[in-house]
Amino acid sequence: MRVAIHNPHSEVTEADSAYCLRRVGLALRRFEQRIKGVIVRLKDENGPRGGVDKHCLLVIAIAGVGELVIDSAHSEIRAAIDVASSRAKQSVARRLGRRHKRSPLRAVR
Question: Rounded to two decimals, what is the model's pTM?
Fold first, then answer.
């Protein structure tokens, strides 16, 4: 599973980027055979001013399913990463679980 981090204005430190790689990798490890890749966008909207302006956006490409987009905002970048990773794990499990439940029911006669 490839995880690419995009940090367009480099407001986020290398340590936070490494934390993100580790956290996303651990959250989605169970699904790595089905996930083609993950794009992570880390962004600090207001710079050093503070507030709930740190965003973590995950775009997860799942084989045979499509893309799943998870967005999280928090006042701390690592908290935004944690929330997005947890949501991603739940959403991928739900999306892959639905594929198995969609088989049509046959009438018993």
Answer: 0.81
